[in-house]
Every structure is written in structure tokens, then in C-alpha cells.
Amino acid sequence: MEGEKEFLSNIEKLKADVLACCRNPEHPPRILPVSKTQPIERILPLKQAGFTAIGENHAQEILEKFPALGADFEIHMIGRLQTNKIKYIINRVCLVQSLDSIHLAQALDARAQACGIVMPVLVQLNTGREAQKGGLPPEEIVAFARECARLPGLSVRGLMAVMPKAEDPESIRPLFRQARQLFEQLRAEAIDGVDCQELSMGMTHDYRVAAQEGATMLRLGAAIFGERKYH
User: Fold this and answer.
1) Cα–Cα distance, 116 to 113 (Å, whole number)
2) CB of 112 within 8 A of CB of 118?
3) What are 86-94's contacts with CB under 8 Å, separation 24+?
4) Over the stretch 146-190, which tens digit does the pLDDT of each residue have?
5) CA proximity to 95, closest of 115, 81, 114
6) What SS3 state is found at 195?
7) What is the mean pLDDT of residues 48-57?
8) pLDDT one-digit tens code per residue, 180-190
9) Is the pLDDT of residue 94 over 90?
10) pTM higher than 0.90, yes or no?
């Protein structure tokens, strides 16, 4: 299919761009395709491009897509998670990237233990301190990670940073740098139950800066699928 060939070719160009601009070319950041609102037939070709994981924002979409995608892709929960939706995603996702309150942590821990699993999580960092977005301010991250590490149903794997939208990504470079420094601080703390592996930051409009500043994972939607069309 011509459209699919072009789609896969564009992904290869995107991978090459990430490799060219990343902080450490020997360990380039993983690209996590963000597939919210995308139909199954647009997601499945990602397998040919070597992707094994996707990111979804809503529990309902995960529930709907899982039967068709669960065997081919690991699913990351990257959107805000309400406690009453945990039961729908607990056996369907491999990582919750948006952990940002002790209430959510305790509810996720309880459900994970009831299911006999340990759920990997990232602590969500709100670098710009934007009230309308989830996440914790930088000064609360280490103490929060320490508290979550005491919950046997959770495994803290690092940070997910949410950045303010900026016309010029260079203007928020200091926030990416701060997120990496905080990630390195969390790793240096060597907290029992915290295995600091992932720094998930950077989206379509700012992924180059994120890659340059040490992201281990980029959450890319429009860069892969094109801009979403709204009806």
C-alpha cells in the first residue's frame, strides 16, 4: 500500500532525526507512539516499523483497543488516571506514566496487589507548575517517590515530565534540563524500591530539545500520525 509505505518511510526519517540530535547516540531515546484517537488500522503498521509499545491517554480507549492490540503492543497509560478507572487498565497496561498523588498511588497499589502483580510506574513531574495539568512540582518528587516505593504493588521506574506548550522549544530548554537533573538526583538517592531507568519527556513540538537534554523516551503523536483532525 502506497500510504503505508510513506507512513513507514516517514517513521524511519523521524528515527534518524532523533538519533542525529540526541544527547547520547549510543543510547538514543525510545520513541513511544501516542495513538490516542487513532483507529486500529493506523496503529497496527507500527509493528513493521519495529515498535512494540504505544501510549494511550484514556482508559476507555485502552479498553476498546486492547483486544486488537494487546498481543502486538505493550500499552503505556500516559494520561491522567482516575482511581475509578484503575480496574479497567490494571491488566492491560505495562506502565502507568502519570502517577501524581498518594491517593492514586494507594489505589493503584491495592488493585495491583489484589491482581497479584507489581505495576511499574513513573512519577509525573509538572515542570511548569501549571495548575491545569497533573504532576508534582520538582521539590516534591523525591519524597513522593520514596513514599510510593513503600507500596509493594508498585515499582517506581523514573519520571514523566510534562512541559508547558511553547512556540519556541528553546525557551523551555531549562525545564528539560531541570527534569534530567531531578531524574539523576532521584537515581543518586538509591531509594529501595525505586529503579530509576526512564525519563519520559518530549512531544512532537519539542522532541529535539528533549532528546538533546537526555530523555530516555519521547511521546510522539503528530510526528508519527500527522495532526489529528477534529470534526
Assistant:
1) 5
2) yes
3) 86/111, 87/111, 88/59, 88/60, 88/62, 88/63, 89/59, 89/62, 89/63, 90/115, 90/117, 90/119, 91/115, 91/117, 92/62, 92/63, 92/66, 93/56, 93/62, 94/53, 94/120
4) 999 999 999 999 999 999 999 999 999 999 999 999 999 999 999
5) 81
6) strand
7) 96
8) 999 999 999 99
9) yes
10) yes
3-state secondary structure of 98: strand
pLDDT of 203 over the 80 cut: yes
pLDDT at 231 over 70: no
**In the chain, where does DSSP find H-type helix?**
2-21, 40-43, 59-69, 86-89, 102-114, 141-149, 173-189, 207-212, 222-225
Give the residue from 110, 89, 210, 224 showing the smallest Cα distance to 160: 210
Which ranges of 23-101 would DSSP assign to H, the alpha helix? Answer: 40-43, 59-69, 86-89
Measure CA of the first residue to CA of the last residue in the chain; give whole Å.
Answer: 26
C-alpha cell at 166: 511553547
In sequence order, the 6+-apart residues with CB closer than 8 A to the CB of 187 are 196
> What pLDDT does 230 receive?
47
What DSSP designation does 203 have?
-
The one-letter code for the residue type at 10 is N
Close Cβ partners of 101 (under 8 Å, ≥ 6 residues apart): none
**Beta bridge partner(s), residue 136:** 125
